[in-house]
Design brief:
The chain has 314 residues and is an alpha/beta fold. It is built from 14 helices and 8 strands. Strands 3-2-1-4-5-6-7-8 form an 8-stranded mixed β-sheet, sandwiched between helices. Strand 4, helix 5 and strand 5 form a beta-alpha-beta unit. Bound molecules: nicotinamide-adenine-dinucleotide (NAD).
Length: 314
């Protein structure tokens, strides 16, 4: 599908809005960032410029100077969306905050503009209830942090979302270098956050039960499953884990031994206070006072190298 590289509004200029803004500007879109105050927008614009420079320095984008000139800011939501092809909402994670933003974007944006939400797990079917004019152009486009570097975007249409909206959003996401997946059915948390939270609960529980330290849980994921998952997902990984019998052998013969592991795994939905305290203490000990900016820079440098290796030519 041909992509119209028009103007994109990034509504909410926090961590995720900044990542979106940097990526769209670098890929040739005019970007307007909107937030509640000029102070917030000033800080956000500085971060966006730094992301753009980083992407250009690491060879993940060129045209640095024109990208920097494509960023505008405003506190006025109506002004932000009035002439866009796409508005991406990245405000606080609650229906109470997102619904009025969608209702207002729907009133002010051109009829054909796509209205996307970065929500980590809320459902578009619910958000759409607040959208009076054109709910069919609303869709979830859930990125992963840092949004300017991690390729995945999960497209989760609501009950009223049109097929055309899904296709147009998919095309724009591919145009900016994202790797889109489309949910066939809505599920809170979509695909990747559901998988992620299953692992996270077990990670918290292993530390809470005294099986391992925070540092060793992180090391085990990084040095084991994590490094494989960067190349192939769980299905293909297990296909190779079945030896010459592949996935069928693994499912029918080896799989059964996992029942006793599953029986002893965490089942809670509210994180126990003891697990919260141990997680905070363990992370603080592991980090040893290193500032967040230093950790982010360390992560982003490695992410950029991995991206070049694994996703440059998809
Ligand atoms: N942080 C993550 O790792 C992550 C990853 C993927 C998706 N998300 C989702 O993206 C969204 C934003 O998350 P974040 O981490 O960037 O949050 P954040 O707190 O860093 O930023 C939210 C921004 O929205 C602004 N805001 C709040 N209400 C607003 C309104 N009515 N109009 C305009 N701006 C408003 C705030 O001032 C703030 O700058 C959430 O829905 C979150 O679930 C977060």
């Amino acid at each position: 599908m041909a992509v119209e590289r028009g103007k994109v509004a990034c509504i909410g200029s926090g961590l995720i809005g900044q990542g979106w803004a940097a990526l769209f500007a670098l890929k040739g879109y005019e970007v307007v960032m909107q937030d509640l105050s000029d102070e917030v927008l000033e800080r956000a614009a500085a971060r966006v410029r730094s992301h753009i420079r980083f992407l250009a320095d690491t060879g993940l984008g060129d045209d640095l100077n024109s990208a920097l000139g494509r960023i505008e800011t405003t506190t006025d939501l109506v002004e932000a969306v009035e002439d866009v092809v796409l508005a991406v909402e990245s405000v606080y994670e609650s229906y109470e905050v997102k619904k009025p933003v969608f209702a207002e974007m729907d009133q002010a944006a051109p009829e054909d503009a796509i209205l996307a939400s970065s929500t980590s797990g809320l459902l578009m079917t619910e958000i759409q209830k607040a959208v009076g004019l054109h709910p069919e152009r609303c869709i979830v486009a859930h990125p992963w942090n840092p949004a300017h570097l991690v390729p995945l975007v999960e497209l989760a249409p609501g009950e009223l979302t049109s097929r055309r909206t899904v296709e147009r959003t998919y095309a724009i996401m591919e145009d900016i270098g994202k790797v889109p997946v489309v949910l066939k059915k809505e599920a809170p948390g979509f695909i990747a956050n559901r998988l992620s939270v299953a692992l996270w609960r077990e990670a918290l529980d292993l530390v809470d039960k005294g099986v391992a330290s925070v540092e060793d849980v992180d090391k085990a994921v990084r040095a084991g499953p994590g490094i494989r998952w960067a190349i192939m997902g769980p299905y293909l990984t297990y296909h190779l884990g079945g030896g010459t019998g592949g996935i069928e052998y693994l499912m029918r013969h080896i799989g059964a031994s996992k029942a006793s592991w599953l029986e002893t795994m965490a089942k809670w939905t509210d994180t126990p206070e003891s697990a919260i305290e141990k997680a905070i203490d363990g992370v603080n000990e592991m980090v040893g006072g290193r500032p967040l900016e230093e950790l982010e820079a360390w992560r982003d440098e490695r992410l950029a190298k991995l991206l070049g290796l694994l996703w440059k030519n998809k």
